[in-house]
Each structure stands twice: as C-alpha cells, then as structure tokens.
Amino acid sequence: MSIKEVLVPDIGNFKDIEVIEIMVAAGDSIAADASLMTVESDKAAMDIPAPFAGTVTEVKLKVGDKVSEGSLILMMDTASAAAPAAAAPVVKSFTPAATPVVAEVPAPSQPAPEVPTQKPPRSQPDPVAAHPHFEAGKTTHASPAVRRFARELGADLSRIKGSGPRGRLLKEDVQNWIKAELAKPTGEAIGLGFTPAPVIDFGQFGEVDTQALSRIKKLSGVNLHRNWVTAPHVTQFDEADITDLEDFRKSMQDEAGRRGVKLTLLAFMMKAVVNALRTFPTFNASLAVDGESLIMKKYFHIGFACDTPDGLVVPVIRDVNKKDVMDIARELTELSELARERKLKVDAMQGGCFTISSLGGIGGTKFTPIINCPEVAILGLSRAEMKPVWNKASKSFEPRLMLPLSLSYDHRVIDGADGARFTSHLRLMLSDVRRLLL
Ligand code: CAO
What we know:
Elements: E1 3-7, E2 17-22, E3 29-30, E4 35-40, E5 44-49, E6 54-59, E7 66-67, E8 72-77, E9 102-104, E10 134-135, E11 138-139, H1 144-153, H2 171-183, H3 186-190, H4 215-230, E12 233-241, H5 243-251, H6 253-258, H7 265-279, E13 285-287, E14 294-296, E15 302-304, E16 306-308, E17 311-313, E18 316-317, H8 325-340, E19 354-358, E20 377-381, E21 385-391, E22 396-410, H9 416-431, H10 433-437
Parallel strand pairs: 15-19, 19-20
Antiparallel strand pairs: 1-8, 2-4, 2-7, 3-6, 4-5, 5-9, 6-8, 10-11, 12-22, 13-14, 15-18, 16-17, 20-22, 21-22
Helix pairs in contact: 1-2, 7-8, 7-9
The chain binds oxidized coenzyme A.
Residues 264-266, 304-307, 312, 332, 336, 357-361, 369-370, 381, 383-384, 403 line the site of oxidized coenzyme A.
C-alpha cells in the first residue's frame, strides 16, 4: 500500500472556489487524468483531474466546500495503480476528461473571453473553449465535461433541464434531450419558438359541437402549414383581359359538347401557364433540399386544386404542353370527378411542376394561395368581372372581362421582378387567344 495525498493543483488566480460536484468515492479505482471533481467560481467552472492512477481510500471534501490551490482533495493508494488502463473503471457514469477543461462563464453582457490555446503544464487544468449558456441571464450549471459533450452534439444547454443536485445538468440530461429532439416532427425541430396555443373551453361561451377533421384535411393541413412557414411567400396580383378568350370559349361550347367535353376557362389557363413556364423556366423548378441548387424540369405537369367534400386535393395533368385544350378540359373533368368520388389514385396527384387554384366559379376578388412545395409557385384565379378599361387608341373606357390573377412564389427562388414578368406574360397570352393556341 502506498497512500498519497491528492491536492488541488495550480488553478490560476482562483481562490476559495466552491466544489460543485465530486465524481469519485472511497474504493473507486481511477485512471490518471480521470475527473475527480468540478469546482466553480463566479467566472469559471473546471474539472480537477487525477494526477496519477490508483484507488481512492478517502475523500476529504464534500460538495459546497471551498478550495484553493493546495487544498486536500482525497487520499489515494497508488500501489494498485499498476492495474492496466482497461481495468480502471470509469468513475460512476461520468466520462473522464482526457484533458481537463475550463469553461469560462462571463457575465451575460460581456463578450466571450479569449480562449487560451497553449497547453499548460500537466498538473494544471487545460483550458478549452466553452460557450456559456444562459437562460434569461441565469448560468446553466454543468461540468466542463458535460459542456464539452453537449457542444460536440450541438445541444443548447440553456434549453435542457438538469436532473442533478441543485438542477445541475448531467450527461444523461444531454443525451435524453438529444433523443427527444430527434423524435420531434421536423417543424418543431426547426425550433420556430411558437408558444403553444391556449386550450379554450368554447362551451363556456355557448353551445358547441366538436367534429373530427377528415383524413385529407389533416394531411393537407400539415403540408400547408409546413409550406407556409418554410417557403417565404410573396403574392403578385394582376388582372388579365379575357374578353376575347371568353368569346372564343363560348363559340367552342357546342363543338366541345358534341365531343362530350365541358370547355372551361381552366383548360385555357393551363396552356397559358405552360407557355409562361417555358418563358420563365425557374418557375418550373424545385429547390434542392440542401438549398444549394435548382432542379429544372423539362416536363410540364400542372396540378389544379380541387374542392371535394372531404377537403382539398390536387390532381395533376401530365404533359400539358403536348395536349390541346379539349384534351385538357376532358382530363380536368375526369380527374375532378374521381377526386370527388374519392377514387383518385396516388400517382394522379404526384409529379406536379406548378399548381393552379381556381376559385373563379365561386367568387372573390383576390387571395394568397399557399405554394404546393416543392413547387416554387402557384397561380390563384378569382372571379372574372366586367370592368371599364381605358383604351389608349380610342381614348375611351371600354367594358372588358377582367380575370384577377394571384401568383404566390417562393422568394428564395424567384425575384419580385420575375414574379411581375410572369403575370405580365400571362396577361399577354390570355388577352390574345391566337398566341395561346400557338
Ligand atoms: N370567373 C368567372 N367564372 C368562372 C371562373 C372565373 N375565373 N372560373 C370558372 N367560372 C365559371 C365557369 O365558367 C362555370 O360556369 P358555367 O357553369 O356557367 O359554365 C362555373 O364557374 C363553374 O366552373 P367550375 O368551377 O365547375 O369549373 P372550373 O374548370 O373553373 O374549375 C375546379 C374546376 C375543379 C378547379 C373547381 O371545381 C374547384 O374545385 N375549385 C375550387 C378550388 C379550390 O378549392 N381552391 C382553393 C385552394 S386553396 O389554395
């Protein structure tokens, strides 16, 4: 048996600093450099490492004691130190710090201190950078080893509740927090910082009836919410003169009827949109998930929002560029019927490049449609109305049928100028049916 005293090493200018955690007990066999205890002043916390390997025979301190350089920490039997490192058990569940660390904890208003990079003598703690963590000006209590562990995993200590004595953060607290964060849905993991919605008993204000949301509403709700908060939306409003287009459409109704087709404005809109997508290809793109590149699509599959008794669905018409308005109109009717009868197959709702949401048959003057991500833009149509429009040539107002356009786009991908160019191009296409049919 060879009993040695273990003293507090040179800890710089710190004196009478508090012992906040002791990681060893009598009987523990420890390796050289294993953390023995953590001390903390008002400015710093540091782990004190074992200067040599051995078995702890007696701990001379307790949590709350004040120590300075030379204070007796414990007695150690170094005769047992010949034990191979593998046999040296890890003290409690604490991971011994190979290099003890000092975590500077400045006052909240102060900038982070300069971090010394030079390695000090072996008997001294080795200062390593650590970010202080504050919650409303309060210091988070955690040993440097736990801080380092959290830092390596990118865990924000100020958001973790400590389960140790006096609320100290333990390694297990960090592990549990990381597990819980990973298990959360993406939106929460983004950390938008929403306060939870209050739970209100509406019955206290009058009679109520609670109805379950349909499966479609629940699914589309999650997607709409994600798209709304993750894609920065801008909505460009415009109006297109569709007087001539409407005359043409009506003139084609009989023929369409003979072919069993209901020729609606939406079919023409699809052709106009494809023309605009060809002219402005970034509208026919998707942003790569890493945000580093744009995936430009060479096909033109256009989705349309369809109102069904169960909620909103978006069937997709494929290769609109290769189809004429009659074919498109027929498909619109077929897909809408399938959607309303809940017979739409999943692949009929996939692969869209751009979506049109038409509320024209219902009413309204304009609205802000939510982008159907990963598409980057959506066109909303409201009810066309006859309006007086100034004719420069005849210097008079003329009654024209004006269609309100509401184009929402993802501002990460599309600039405002291109948003306005896109709707201007649509105006041009829609005002001259000959261009549209080219
Ligand atoms: N202005 C004036 N009238 C319009 C119009 C417009 N912009 N769009 C359609 N109409 C007229 C049609 O000509 C038709 O009139 P007739 O019956 O006299 O011919 C009538 O309104 C009904 O049209 P419709 O809505 O049945 O046909 P559509 O091809 O225009 O639309 C569909 C099909 C599936 C888009 C539509 O039925 C629908 O579900 N709309 C709702 C979409 C929705 O909920 N969007 C919101 C999503 S949230 O972003």
